[in-house]
Amino acid sequence: MLPIDFSALLASSIHDIKNSLGALRALLTQLEKIYIDPKPDELKHLNFEANRMNNILMQLLILYKIDLSQFSPTIDEHEVGEILEDVSAQQSTLLSLGNIKLITQCDNDLHCYCDSTLIGNALCTLVNNAQRYCLTKVLLSVAKEGDYVVFCIEDDGKGYPENLLTSDYKQLPLIDLATGNTGLGLFFTDTIAQLHVQGDKRGFITTDNNSQFGGARFRLYLP
Amino acid sequence: MAINLTSKKILIIEDNASMRETMIHILGSLGGRFLITAESGINAITAMKIDKFDIVLCDYNLLGKKTGQQVLDDARFLKLLPVNAIFIMVTGETRQELVLSAIDNKPDDYLIKPISKDQLSTRIERCTARKQYLACVENEMDSGNFYQALHHCKRLLESDDKKMRLHLLKIQAELTIKIGDFKAAEQLYENILYERELPWARLGLGTVAFFLGDYDQAIETFKDLIVQHPSMMEAYDWLVKAHEAQGNDDNALSSLNSAVNLSPMSILRQKKLAMLADKTDNLAIAHKAYSAVIKLGKNSAQKSPADFAGLANVYLKSNAPNEALKILNQLNLRFQNDPEARLRSALLESEIHLTNGNKELAQLAFGKASVLNEQFSKNLPKELRLNMAKTLYLNGDKMACDEMLNDLVTTNIDNKLFVKDIVNMCDTFIGQNYAMLLIKQVRKELADINNNGVNLFLEGDIKGALDVFEKAIAKRPNNHTVILNMVKIIIHDLKSSKPDPDKIIKAQAYINKAIEIGMPHTQISRLQTELDSFQNATLQ
């Protein structure tokens, strides 16, 4: 048998799945029109899950390209408020579903150098995860800390499991089949954080359970 | 969300029917009333010819033959987008791949599917705010008034708006290069880079080195950028230019070839590759690139008879005259009423028949070319006219050839690269001293005209002097000295007479022309400052 190039195979499969997902989303929109307001929650949930799958596939594709050295981030100066606004806008469907609150916080004219599409995508996934594991609220706050701009996501859930509290995110944690927790979001965010470089400083992430609300706390440092 | 789209004309370009409906639904809920949809790139261009849109939302992966990037390229090329219009590219992919295909035309923003109402409304709002903020700069740029644009840019920077600061600095640096003040641009880019290593600023520094003639430095910068950002197409494009400027066509070709491999959908890059490969006799590459250009050109406003003629010529050079004739047939079919196409075709036909030993047919085709040349000569591209001059000479019509070469040298005396092409052609076909003598004679004529005009001016005959230079400009629209003298005299005239807005406009138009043809900043800036003082005087 010929050796199988799994990464190439995976990349083309992802393209196919993405196309199907696109079709599925279009169908969903059509379906939505049948219902009058208020639309059933199941529909919103479907939309949300499709969105999440799309995000993950995009991350996989980017990781694939980074692996092939075909990827470099598009770094520019961005207003942090705008990035947060984008994340909130993307999460609006899910937020409208239930009783979970997403609070965003940052200084008015805080700016940071980053690839806003990448960072937005990563934050979305992580906020998303936080929403799944929290009880009532998620706080996304950004502040300047020395030479870094720090994006912080805190929730009031049970906190990260032991396997996600490592400091080496390059090592993909074993998939926990019981919780379905893969750590892919963290792996992706850590990878793209490291593509943000200024002088001898590089971006990185940390995880702990020191949330001011008693749950998990994630932090992304960008130089 | 505060945005209200009631008064905006919006075009939605999307091939998927349900996506289209979703967009209409979202835009409608934001107040949009004037919504036009197009399901293909070709229909989109038609729609933009009928209406001037404020906002265009364009899907990148359009079914059919045009991509979203081609729609944007064509819209800009045909000037269908108003200066203050917003063009947003919508895509299922990551931004990276789209940026790849763009050369000069970048959309105002990218949006990644799926799009929610909130997302769309914030993006449109942001783009609108940015466009409004920059309107004063962009309007002046659009009219070619680069000094005024730069002035507005500096004024906006003084207000210290952190959000727009970097964007303004980028525009400022680009404008500073436009007016030819390279040292100042260098300083601007260095200041930005001191703060942060940003690829566009590094690229800017490379272009400054290029314009200052430091090609080694420029090449090193562009190469470094490509190592760090393998998909940064602009760095490749500049690298090619720098190699060319150094006279190293082989290196230029190999860089351009890598760029085309990365972005095979870009018609302009393919075209450039075809011509360069043709020039350096890399016939296999030329063949492949011309074929790609013709294929891409089918759906593009950038299609040109020169592509077909180029491919036919490659066949001819590869000893396949019959294939060449087939391509000429296609050329004749596609561009039936285009005099340029007919001339190109006739010229090549004559050459092909000569190669085949068919003297009578060759003579017949040459006859056709001569007639067309007499009818349209001045309106044809200069490269084509040079080619025509060669054919005239080879067919024994020395007088017509002399006349054409004289005119070509006269109108392009300041274009070093093209003068070099003329010299090469003359050296190969006519004789070693021919071009040298011709250039000497043209320079002398020019000097005489300038002296004559300046003398009249010194004698106080301003009207007579203006008359001399106006006639000179009509015949030599791109000559540096003539334009410069013209502006000087108008400004002197303004000093000694009462304020006259018409004269100011005229002088400004000549200054813009001078910038456009790349005259150095050192020669223009003082004149612009003087002109500005009249402008301010009339305003008060």
Order of helices and strands of chain A: HHEHEEHEEHEEEE
Nearest-integer average pLDDT of chain A: 83
Distance between the termini of chain B: 43 Å
- CATH class descriptor of the largest domain in chain A: Alpha Beta
CATH T-level fold name of the largest domain in chain A: Heat Shock Protein 90
Kindly report the oligomeric state of this protein: heterodimer
Number of strands of chain A: 9
Name the chain pair whose interface involves the most residues: A-B, 37 and 33 residues
- CATH superfamily of the domain at 9-139 in chain B, called what? Response regulator
| Class of secondary structure makeup of chain B | mainly alpha
Number of helices of chain B: 26
Please compute the radius of gyration of chain B using only Cα atoms: 26 Å
Which stretches of chain A of 5+ consecutive residues score pLDDT under 50?
Answer: none
How much of the sequence lies in strands of chain A comes to 15-25%
Strand content of chain B: under 5%
The biggest beta sheet of chain B is recorded as:
5 strands, parallel
Characteristic terms for this protein:
A: 223 residues, alpha+beta, Heat Shock Protein 90, 2 domains, 5-stranded mixed β-sheet, two-stranded antiparallel ribbon, 5 helices, B: mainly alpha, Serine Threonine Protein Phosphatase 5, Tetratricopeptide repeat, 5-stranded parallel β-sheet, 26 helices, globular
